[in-house]
Amino acid sequence: MLGAECPKPCKGKWPTPPFDPRFPNQNQTRNCYQNFLDCHRCIKTMNRRGKSTQPCEYYFRVYHSLCPISWVQRWKEQIKDGTFAGKI
């Protein structure tokens, strides 16, 4: 992935992701996808600037809470293969 991997999940209790007004309805599919993109964009930007990727952990935690594991695995494979449809 773009020179860096997302952080590994932390052990311990994770709070429920807060309400995001961009996704007001019950279907959280777009929320999941957008946070996945935001996490990878954040990591790419921070690595380019030579800074810590710790601020990107928020997006990582949100998409790991909302997204099915199978989706995340498929998206990571697509990124690795260069076939991912999202703009990172």
UniProtKB/TrEMBL annotation:
Primary location group: mitochondrion
Going by the entry's taxonomy, the superkingdom of the source organism is recorded as: Eukaryota
In terms of InterPro entries, this protein maps to: COX6B-like, CX6/COA6-like_sf, Cyt_c_oxidase_su6B
What GO CC terms are in its UniProt record? mitochondrial inner membrane; respiratory chain complex IV
Q: Hey, what's the signal peptide range on this chain?
A: none
Compartments, as annotated in UniProt = Mitochondrion
Family as reported in the entry's similarity comment:
Belongs to the cytochrome c oxidase subunit 6B.
What this protein is called in its record is Cytochrome c oxidase subunit
Q: Which organism is it from?
A: Odocoileus virginianus (White-tailed deer)
Q: What gene is this protein translated from?
A: COX6B2
